[in-house]
Design a protein that fits this description.
Blueprint (H helix, E strand, L loop, with lengths): L5 H6 L7 E4 L3 E5 L8 E6 L14 H17 L6 E3 L15 E4 L3
Antiparallel strand pairs: 1-2, 2-3, 3-5, 4-5
This protein binds adenosine monophosphate (AMP).
């Protein structure tokens, strides 16, 4: 956990979020500033700043995040959707705790 990380605080339930999914490795919740009708985030519980910091032994986390995205999309009746991971500030990453956006088409 990273002390001043907003997503670590959501994992630790120190700040509220509208949770959709939780298991031992990851959490999914609604984006606070949705840019689509359904806009969810999937994050690892472990603090990994960005995809570039993922290591070989994080492969299970990566796989679980993808499965969680599939689950929350189905739970929200999304038949078609986009998954987005921004890596680095120039690509638009604002929160430096790895996350995957799950967005409905509109
Ligand atoms: P990114 O630009 O890829 O780093 O996306 C970060 C996302 O996190 C943005 O879409 C924000 O709206 C979202 N976000 C930031 N703080 C919170 C929060 N406390 N709860 C839910 N979503 C958040």
């Amino acid at each position: 956990m990273s002390e001043d990380c907003v997503f670590c605080k959501i994992v630790e339930k120190k700040i509220p979020a509208k949770l959709e999914y939780e298991d031992d490795l990851c959490v999914s919740f609604h984006d606070i500033n949705p840019r689509a009708k359904v806009h969810l985030l999937v994050i690892p519980k472990k603090h990994i700043s960005t995809l570039k910091d993922m290591e070989k032994n994080d492969a299970e986390i990566a796989g679980r995040m993808m499965m969680a995205a599939k689950e929350v999309a189905a739970k929200n009746d999304l038949d078609s959707y986009r998954l987005l991971v921004s890596v680095g500030s120039e690509a638009g990453q604002e929160v430096f705790h790895l996350h995957m956006h799950v967005m409905s088409p509109r």
